[in-house]
Specification:
The complex is a heterodimer of chains A (348) and B (177). By secondary structure, chain A is α/β, with parallel strands linked by helices. Helix content of chain A is 35%, strand content 13%. Chain A has a 5-stranded parallel beta sheet with strand order 7-6-5-8-9. A 4-stranded parallel beta sheet of chain A has the order 2-1-3-4, with helices on both faces. In chain A, helix 6 links the parallel strand 5 and strand 6. Chain B has 177 residues and is α/β, with parallel strands linked by helices. Helix content of chain B is 27%, strand content 25%. Chain B has 4 helices and 8 strands; from the N terminus they run βαβαβαβαββββ. Chain B is globular and about 45 Å long. The chains are: A alpha/beta (348), B alpha/beta (177). Chains A and B meet through helix 1 and helix 11 of A and helix 3 and helix 4 of B.
Chain lengths: 348, 177
């Protein structure tokens, strides 16, 4: 399970069949890689409906009443955990937040023991964040058939709900009046080597047919064979930003670095920090995205993060609708068990 | 099998409009143009559009996507969703005409009413359907129905939105309206 081949664009396991039921419905959501365009589009369409729920006075639907969702965060993340929790609560599920650091795992209980105990408590879904690439796949292979796993970030492998909320944001903010992903130019900027978000975004953009994808960053922070992902590589930010419609800034992951990648954060900002002047090189109506948390003054200037072209807070809001979509699709897929011909449902 | 042509369906719609008017008159004798109408996606939208026009209602037509309120989620999962619900008026204290193409088990209407109450507390809901089939599974009946039918359980009633023809079809296994 140790993902030490971090220079590979899609490090970690890529078993995607495990994500789908025999009928091709979503059962787990572990990675964007290997999912068809129709499935990604279904996630975005379903999220569009949940966004409507989020905009009304009573922000709750009864869909997952009686289901229990356990947030298993082996690695801290306030924003991701909170939006998963809100998403589950808006679907009327019960939510458990397991603080792994102070739980039985810290007392020596194995991961599988923890899982078996939670299954014995009749949990229906585990939302898993783990520092090891492949952790969510590992858990998905070992749970009972009625339990769904959603990957909330595993090592440097994947963060599929973040990628899908980014796609949702792009679709809502840029795909109007007949404009589609294929008409847009994208720039993903920053520390892509350590980024599971980047890996999931690339798979999503490629599957959804993005027009042109550029990756921009210092050579030391780009995956070695990044060109094989069908992207254009730029090491100069000014050149890379020219005329793009979507600028996705990535966080400089200093906590994942062990020396040698960068001279200093200050120098990084000089070369790769997004300033108002540099943003002018992009299309005048370009949007600026960031998965958060932002390092202001390191990869992005505060006035850009708070500026008119920034959709960073929209990303947070849309993240709830996208997670509601993924959770309800996966739990519906796991629960249905192929009995897809109920003739006495809510028909007519 | 049995089919009603567009002229027949239109005459049912005229009857429905007349029945709705006489039903609404005692509620608000001075007129009913402030009454709200909601169509249930996807089959109820076309019927609602026509009735909305016939009754000359002034409030914009609402549309409900009941996918998140269905009672069969745990058995068959999430239904492919169409367009989000949109109720472009205040539901609170509103008289609402709820419109669908076919009333059969009553489960769709139960789900639709549950959703409406998440928007507010209407003063009254009137149910209008083009076809009311025998075979209800819940105590829900139409206030106004264009046509009432007793059909075998293995057939499906389907309105063609484009031609306004109503077809009664032998349902294939698993097909739901």
């Amino acid at each position: 399970m140790r993902g030490n081949d971090i220079n590979r664009p899609s490090a970690g396991p890529t078993a995607h069949n495990i994500q789908l039921t025999d009928e091709g419905k979503l059962r787990h959501f572990l990675t964007v890689e290997g999912l068809k365009k129709a499935t990604l589009t279904e996630i975005l369409d379903t999220a569009e409906n949940f966004a409507g729920v989020d905009e009304r006075d009573l922000r709750k639907v009864p869909l997952l009443r009686g289901k229990t969702v356990a947030n298993l965060f082996f690695e801290n993340s306030t924003r991701t955990r909170t939006t998963f929790e809100l998403a589950a609560k808006r679907l009327s599920a019960d939510v458990l937040n397991i603080n792994i650091a102070t739980s039985a795992t810290a007392k020596g209980e194995s991961l599988l023991d923890t899982l078996h105990n939670l299954q014995a408590m009749h949990c229906d879904m585990f939302v898993v964040r783990h520092a090891q690439s492949g952790a969510a796949h590992f858990i998905a292979r070992h749970v009972e058939p009625h339990v769904s796993i959603v990957n909330a970030g595993d090592g440097q492998h994947a963060h599929p709900t973040q990628a899908m909320l980014d796609m949702f944001t792009i679709r809502r903010e840029k795909c109007n009046n007949g404009v589609g992903f294929h008409d847009l130019r994208f720039a993903i900027v920053g520390d892509l080597l350590h980024s599971r978000v980047f890996r999931s975004q690339i798979h999503a953009l490629n599957t959804l047919g993005a027009g042109e994808v550029r990756v921009i960053g210092p050579k030391t922070l780009l995956p070695i064979d990044v060109e094989q992902l069908g992207v254009r590589v730029h090491t100069n930010l000014d050149q890379g930003l020219k005329d793009v419609d979507v600028v996705i800034m990535m966080r400089l992951q200093r906590e994942r670095m062990q020396g040698g990648f960068l001279p200093s954060a200050g120098e990084y900002f000089t070369e790769y920090g997004l300033t108002p002047e540099r943003l002018k090189l992009a299309h005048p109506e370009a949007i600026v995205m960031h998965p958060g948390p932002t390092n202001r003054g390191v990869e992005i200037e505060a006035s850009v993060a708070d500026g008119a072209q920034s959709v960073i807070l929209q990303q947070v809001t849309y993240g709830i609708a996208v997670r509601m979509a993924v959770m309800s699709m996966a739990l519906g897929g796991a629960g249905s068990g192929g009995a897809g011909s109920g003739g006495t449902g809510a028909s007519a | 099998m049995q089919t009603a042509d567009a002229a027949t369906v239109n005459s049912w719609l005229d009857t429905m409009a007349t029945d709705l008017q006489s039903l609404l008159h005692p509620i608000n004798p001075s007129g009913h143009d402030d009454i709200a109408m909601i169509g249930v996606q996807s089959g109820g939208i076309k019927i609602a559009e026509i009735l909305h026009q016939k009754l000359q209602l002034t409030q914009p037509l609402g549309s409900l996507n009941i996918a998140f309120y269905r009672d069969d989620f745990s058995r068959i999962g999430l239904h492919p969703t169409v367009t989000p619900s949109a109720l472009p008026f205040d539901v609170e204290n509103q008289t609402i005409i709820l419109v669908d193409d076919v009333l059969y088990s009553g489960r769709t209407i139960r789900a639709a009413m549950n959703e409406i109450f998440d928007y507010g507390r209407p003063s009254r809901i009137i149910l209008a359907v083009l076809v009311e089939r025998k075979g209800h599974e819940l105590p829900i009946r139409a206030d106004v129905a264009g046509q009432r039918m007793a059909l075998e359980s293995d057939v499906q009633v389907k309105l063609d939105d484009a031609t306004l023809e109503l077809n009664v079809l032998q349902s294939t296994a698993g097909a739901t309206a």
